[in-house]
Amino acid sequence: MNSLILRTTTMLLITILLLFSVFLLLRGHDLPGGGFIGGLTAAAAVALYVLAFGAQAANDMVRVRPRALLGVGLTAAVAAGLIAVLFGTPFLTGHWLIIDLPGSAEVKLSTVLLFDVGVYLVVVGTVLTMLFALEGQ
Amino acid sequence: MEVPFAVMVGVLFASGLYLMMQRNLMRFVFGLLVLSGSVNVLIFTAGRLTRGAAPVIPAGLSTPAGEVANALPQAVVLTAIVIGFGLIVFTLVLLLRVYERLGTVKTDELGDALVRLDDEDEV
Amino acid sequence: MLSAVLAAFAVALVAPLLAQRLGARAGWWLALLPAGLFAWYLTYLPAVAAGESVLEATAWVPRLGVTLAMRMDGLSLLMALIVTGIGVAIVIYAGGYLKGDPALPRFYLILLGFMAAMLGLVTSDDLISLFVFWELTSITSYFLVGFKHQYADSRASALQALLVTAGGGLAMLAGFLMIIAITGSTSISGLIADPATLLASPLLPAVIVLVAIGAFTKSAQFPFHFWLPNAMAAPTPVSAYLHSATMVKAGVYLLARLAPVFTGEPLWVWLLSLIGAATIVAAAGLSLFRRDSKALLAYSTIVALATMVMLIGLGGEYAGTAAVVFLLAHALYKAPLFMVAGSVDHEAGSRDITALRGVGRAMPFTWAAALLAGVSAAGLPPLFGFVAKELALEALLDTRAWLLVPFVGAGAVLLLIAVLVAWRPFAGREIQAPKAVHEAPLSMLVGPLVLAGAGVVLGFAPYLVGDALLVPAAAAVIGAPYAFDLYLWHGLTPALGLSALTIALGVLLTWRWRALHDALRARLGDSRVGPAGVYQRFIDGLVPFAQAFTRRVQPDDLRTHLTVITAVAVLATGLTGLVKGSLRLGLAHTPGYFYEYLVMAVVVAAALAAVRAHRRLPAITALGVLGFGIAIVFVFFAAPDLAITQFLVETLIVIIVALVMMRLPRHSLREEDNRAVRAVAATVATLAGLLIASLTLAVTAGPLDARVSDFFAAESYPSALGRNIVNVILVDFRAIDTLGEITVLVVAAVGVYALLRRRDRSRDPHDVEPPRGSAASDGGDT
Hints:
The complex is a heterotrimer.
Chain A: H1 4-27, H2 35-53, H3 55-62, H4 66-86, E1 96-100, E2 106-110, H5 111-135
Antiparallel strand pairs in A: 1-2
Chain B: H1 2-20, H2 25-46, H3 71-102, H4 107-122
Helix pairs in contact in B: 1-2, 2-3
Chain C: H1 2-22, H2 26-30, H3 32-42, H4 45-49, E1 54-61, E2 66-72, H5 74-97, H6 104-123, H7 127-145, H8 152-183, H9 188-193, H10 196-200, H11 204-218, H12 227-230, H13 236-245, H14 249-262, H15 266-287, H16 293-314, H17 316-348, H18 364-377, H19 384-398, H20 404-422, H21 443-460, H22 463-478, H23 494-511, H24 513-524, H25 531-553, H26 558-580, H27 594-612, H28 616-636, H29 640-661, H30 675-701, H31 707-720, H32 725-733, H33 735-757
Antiparallel strand pairs in C: 1-2
């Protein structure tokens, strides 16, 4: 797998895949996608990078420690639940903030989205922690 | 389609179990993988089979247009797949550590190998 | 009634604190609890005397239909008054007997806890709560028998008492569960009012035997009698309370309670009367070997309990009456006899009746109590024990005269033991006792004197308790009201003649006791045969058996574990499905397309290839094909989210499996098991596969309860503003599940990290070093 083709394609693909994973995460509430799928896509992208350039390079590219993603993700998910408590509703009840933009566009911000972002981060963190731990010896 | 699904679930289940009941732990992990695939399909099938109508509500409507696939087993199986991933990797790494420490992945040799290891540690 | 039990438990809990604060006088103060309860129970007397029973129900486990139903009728009231009344005497007595013992606070905790459980037992009107209280008495008894836990004997006796009575309790529970399954109710009064369903059931013999085993173990009937003499390792107040007056009567109480249900059944009659007779013979014979006052009293308790069992088994009006009167009479004389034996032990230093003579001179009040209780125990007029014995004789004459043989023998032995305990150590010229003999303190005199005095009063005036208490109690045993009068003098009846015969035999036995006792001991000694030996062999064999069995089905080898577990699961599920006929294989048929069959065939082929693959590359390939095939199946059947997830996970798994396998030896996938092991594994696996396939068919053929799914589909957009129902379920409807699941992922990731990090603590593997070569690039083994 030390091939020039793989490395070149990977360089091309990695940005697209990572962007696509965020896209999958954000559209997940209305179309196939979501935190699990988006997270797995991002993780697969990094896995491809590991195969092409090795774990050290992948680690340099990712910059953050995958273990930190675990903590941040779990915290985000729990925070999404606690916001509902602040509003006086049961833990993890969904709350929305819908902002109308000029034209017919709108932006939906919600605790549900925050929760899904938490799932995304945990999934990415899990896969990368495992991958780097295995490869980084 | 229910009969072929049952056959598929049954064959996968049997293959997975057979692999798990062997002394080679690597085969055990493979068996675990096949077995979880079987169970995932079983749960999916139990929610009934629907073609072509994903459980998604089209834009402009507030409820699904007509009959759609059962979303509940899909959600259950989705998490099961991801959790299964975590479980398999954990098992694999455990196995790897066992091999590095004890020098074997044969189930019947592990006990003796552990005892030997304890003896060495005491020395 | 429940409040009384709960109050007793509550006081038991604070009793240790009180005992510490109050010091030497704790016994007197704590006796206020049983005394108060006794007075409170007396308030039920008018209603009970009028033939009513008072009901009280509190929901306990409503979803299982278990209520804490309590009921007060004559029999319950009689038992409750015995438990609390004798409780007063015992609590005071224990204060003197265990004076200065640092463990006294703990003793009160358990003793009062026992009393509360016993009160719950005798007032329960629900089979389940009765069982719970029943086991609570067994457990408290365990702690009390093992009170002197520094002695191995004590511990062994405690364990024996627990195993025998709790084991019997389990048999009883099985019987209760059968009753509940048959009648659909846990109510005891309901069962008594309408036993027809139970009596018509083919399981009736099993119910009778199981319930009787529970009663026999608790009341120390043959062949379970041996635990009671050993339980004398307990401090004397415990022996007097639990092992003569109350707990061992729980078995008799249960039989009496259920007597109206079973009374016409030949199995019930024969089982109870034969076991009762056998117990009398066994206990009477064994008592001749003993010279320890408490052991002798234990055997006489067994004989008395056996008499009650026999009478309850006989049934009918006379026998029912006699059983109830005997119950009260026995409690009134046996508890004081135990206390007296304990006092002598305490003050003179011995329980060996041949080692003491003439202690009565120094202990006149103790002797007086001993004599009063002893005369009643011997069944001599004019005490209450005589009244009871006459009634029993008449009942036997009335029904099965052949049972008179064991009964007359029982009377003679009871007389012998009464003389040995209440006369022999006290009378005669003083000999050197192990301790300088003193009269017992007041706390140890009040109880025996009052209780034994009650026996005298009731002997002359049995009508004091007759109509108000004993008639309603007997009515509960007989199953119908039956008015009777109790007399000391019955006239010149055949019963009186038999009574005289009993006494004559007893006197003869007493006269020749020493010679008989010495001869028996010399001949047979302490040979360990009979049920006690069986118990010992059972206990001795249990641990090796358990070890051998565990080694067989759960050896170190994971294979065997899995095979055994799977085989049992498959057999249990499969056989249940076959027997119950619930494996109905409907062939619900959704038509299929060629390409669907093709993909599924590939998945099946990949699974079989994975089984066959012995090298790394083919095995990983097979797994990959299998996973992607399943993903395609998800695409066909309208599950895009699943399909995407499956694709991604499968990709990652293949990568990680490859990474791990490169670090394992080349031959790590080779199939190395021998033919036999493989055949067993293949058989078990095939059966399991067949079962799962049938379950799949059975499930898809049955009706689908789609209420939850429909709710999610209908509310996904209106309530949760999401169009992808699967995602809405994950992050909104069932978000807390998902939270749990991502927590599991975190744990798995941290676990992997920790496992691999431990390899070399000197560096942090996260801060990745340049890989040795590119580990991923030298993969593949072909």
